[in-house]
Amino acid sequence: MKENIEDNSEDIEVDKDVKDEDIKSNNKKTIWINFILIIVIFVGLLIYMITADGIDNIIAVLQSVDYKWVLLGIICLLINWICEAINLHIPIKKMYKDHEFKNSIKVSMIGLLFNNITPFASGGQPMQAYELTKTGKRVSDSLSAMAIKFIITQTALVITTLIVVIFEFNFFRTLMSNYLWVAILGFGINIIAIILVILAGINKKIITTITNPIVKLLGKIHVLKHPDKTIEKLNNSINNFREQFRLIKSEKRMVIEMFFISIIQSLAYYSITYMIYRAFGNYGITFWQIIPTQAFLLLIMTFIPTPGSGLGAEGGFYLLFNSIFVKGTINMSILFWRIYTFYLPILVGLIFLIPVRIKNNDKNKC
Questions:
Q1: What's the rounded Cα separation, in Å, for the pair 122 and 252?
Q2: CB 282: neighbour CB atoms within 10 A?
Q3: Domain presence at residue 304
């Protein structure tokens, strides 16, 4: 009997290993499919630009670019990345005193990579949590830190954007005349998301009343195999998050620091569009008028299911900014903007990911 039990346990372990390999294989397939889709979109954009503008015009536009503004755009991108890492680092450092900032930079860049190569930016946080477990952090603590970051950064983003919209409302209303209702809907969804996360930290019953029936329904229609276990894990995560959520209430200085860093981060991101606007010889629109328009473009991108909101991002940029860019420069501006906000984060994220894979391979060989 004992031998049978041992044999069964070995079979279970082998079966588990097989399932793990299947999951890894499926994940690799999904990532490769997304990469191929990204390349196809990039090549399609180039073909469209050549067809619409012609090689001669593209060369003339590139020769006329003021690369001082291009460099400033790169600086703004770096500031955005640094602020992203700082806002992840602060809450984790409160939980784990030995956590190093270089790890926060690495985790942030890997998160940006997977946000850009997965639909609806769904892969960033799980990969960040996974990377943090390698340095001894609990998954629940990592997710709590990211939830705290989400609350503060999104609140700062919404408040900053709304203030600018109020002061530049006439310009925003004129430019967004056909899309104003979508902008209102998008801002509303962001505010609801913030409220739900805050409620999870304040009142568990309200959240479980919403989530438990949804999980049970997904179980009945066979989307989830083990709804009861999912509910149990969800409840444990909410309990842990409520414990960590006390950081927001007790650490007022931390919240203020993260709030102002988030404002700097969002302004740095918005500045990229303004730097591109100026690089291609555009004048007349102020930085503060670019902000609400760029914020609205981000809202549009959240509803696009392709990796990095491909096609939707480019199309949205064209619709929103075509009227204020110099004629013949909009397509090249789109390419520059996507290089800053999409392709560069992928390339840099891959650089941070490569050493991890090498180390893992070395460990497997030993």
A1: 30
A2: 17
A3: yes
Q: What H or E segment, with its residue span, contains residue 252?
A: helix 252-279
The one-letter amino acid code at 297 reads L
Q: Are 277 and 290 in contact (CB under 8 A)?
A: yes
pLDDT digits (tens, 9 = 90+) for 173-188: 887 777 777 777 777 8
CA dihedral 148, 153, 155, 156 (to 10 degrees): 140
Q: pLDDT tens for residues 56-88? A: 888 888 898 999 999 999 999 999 999 999 999
* Closest-CA residue to 231 (of 263, 255, 208): 208
Taking only Cα atoms into account, the Rg of the chain, rounded to an integer number of angstroms, comes to 23
Q: What is the pLDDT of residues 195-237, one digit of tens each?
A: 877 787 778 788 888 888 888 888 888 777 888 888 888 888 7
- Interior/surface letters 15-44, b for 16+ CB within 10 angstroms, e for the rest: eeeeeeeeeeeeeeeeeeebeebbeebbee
Q: Who contacts 26 (Cβ-Cβ below 8 Å, separation ≥6)? A: none
Question: Which residues have C-beta within 8 Å of that of residue 90, sequence separation ≥ 6?
Answer: 254, 257, 258, 261
Stretch 332-339: mean pLDDT: 94
Give the pLDDT confidence of 121-161 residue by residue, as tens digits: 777 888 898 899 988 998 878 888 888 898 888 888 888 88
The span from the CA of 101 to the CA of 85, in Å, is: 8
Quote the number of domains for the chain: 1
Per the domain annotation, does 39 fall within a domain?
A: no
Q: Is residue 9 assigned to a domain? A: no
pLDDT at 361: 45
Token digits for 36? 């191929």
Does residue 104 lie within any of the structural domains? yes
Domain that holds residue 196: 54-365
Instruction: Count CB atoms within 10 A of the CB of residue 225.
Output: 9
